[in-house]
């Protein structure tokens, strides 16, 4: 199997994690789906840049992070967060149902600054170590630690929970 085939198989195996990362970065399902498509297109178009001895997930996640930053800059995000279409299903539900809790968490994540949302996505959602996240983001481990601490505080405040 050549490196191009190996990369394609690796991308297929990486799809669930990529979707989770995209949802965490984008906050809205439509934006996340678009981001996944952009990332896959870029990865395939630039397959020659990937080294088979390098971690595919780090390479693809870096593409995702950069693509989302490009998208944010292009949009000049200043619009308010609107509830996703699927949130209408929970209108009559009790406020403690899982779908309402997921919506509240999605809103809280979307309210975080992009650099904090990235750290939450990599460490808390993807389960990367602080040093792995620091390597991917090209920042010191202390920066990851402080961003994560501030993000947790902001999430707790937004969700009305105690530490």
Automatic annotation (TrEMBL):
This is RNA polymerase subunit sigma-70. CDD domains: Sigma70_r4. One of its GO terms (molecular function) is sigma factor activity. Residues 103-155 form the RNA polymerase sigma factor 70 region 4 type domain. It holds the Pfam family Sigma70_r4_2. One of its GO terms (biological process) is DNA-templated transcription initiation. SUPFAM superfamilies: Sigma2 domain of RNA polymerase sigma factors, Sigma3 and sigma4 domains of RNA polymerase sigma factors. Keywords: Sigma factor, Transcription, Transcription regulation. Transmembrane segments: none annotated. Residues 13-63 form the PhyR sigma2 domain. Belongs to the sigma-70 factor family. ECF subfamily. InterPro entries: PhyR_sigma2, RNA_pol_sigma-70-like, RNA_pol_sigma-70_dom, RNA_pol_sigma70_r4_t2, RNA_pol_sigma_r2, RNA_pol_sigma_r3/r4-like, WH-like_DNA-bd_sf. Coiled coil: none annotated.
């Amino acid at each position: 199997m050549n490196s191009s085939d190996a990369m394609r198989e690796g991308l297929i195996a990486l799809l669930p994690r990529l979707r989770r990362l995209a949802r965490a970065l984008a906050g809205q399902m439509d934006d996340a789906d678009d981001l996944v498509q952009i990332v896959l297109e870029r990865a395939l178009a630039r397959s020659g840049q990937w080294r088979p001895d390098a971690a595919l997930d780090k390479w693809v996640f870096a593409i995702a992070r950069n693509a989302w930053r490009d998208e944010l800059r292009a949009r000049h995000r200043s619009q308010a967060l609107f509830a996703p279409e699927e949130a209408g299903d929970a209108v009559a539900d009790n406020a403690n149902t899982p779908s309402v809790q997921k919506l509240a968490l999605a809103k809280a994540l979307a309210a975080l600054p992009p650099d904090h949302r990235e750290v939450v996505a990599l460490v808390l959602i993807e389960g990367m170590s602080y040093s792995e996240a620091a390597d991917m983001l090209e920042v010191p481990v202390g920066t990851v630690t402080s961003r994560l601490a501030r993000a947790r505080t902001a999430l707790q405040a937004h969700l009305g929970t105690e530490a």
